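Example 3.2
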Amino acid sequence: MKKEKRDKHFIHQPSYEGGLKALRAFISKNQQYPEKALQKKIEGTVYLKYTIDNKGDVVDTRIIKSLGDECDQEAIRIVKLLKFQVPKNKGIRVLFHKSIQIHFRLPKEKPVAPSTELVYTVTSAPNKVKAPEKESGGGYTILLPHS
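Structure, written as tokens:
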């Protein structure tokens, strides 16, 4: 009689579908740099703690390290958009607490290429009058050998 293999962990943690790469891609896709922070040239990292319920939704967020009100609000907005996959935990409803860092980096300024300006001027070429070709009378010269 074989013993049933038990799980290593009693309670399984929620995970983001696609893993860490997908989580980072989601954040960078949905992140909107706050206008005031952009004008003030503020950049840095907002540290947050958040709570995930048994359905995989983020139900509570808390700022641990602030970067300014505008950036904090944007970080909270992004975290509340996240949806996690929660495995069945033997019918127990568990709240999970996690932490995350949202980075705010100023967009790199694209080097401004010097504008290229093309100017076309159209001039008409002077009409050359062709001299009328002399008409040749045309003819043949036949040389016969003397015999």
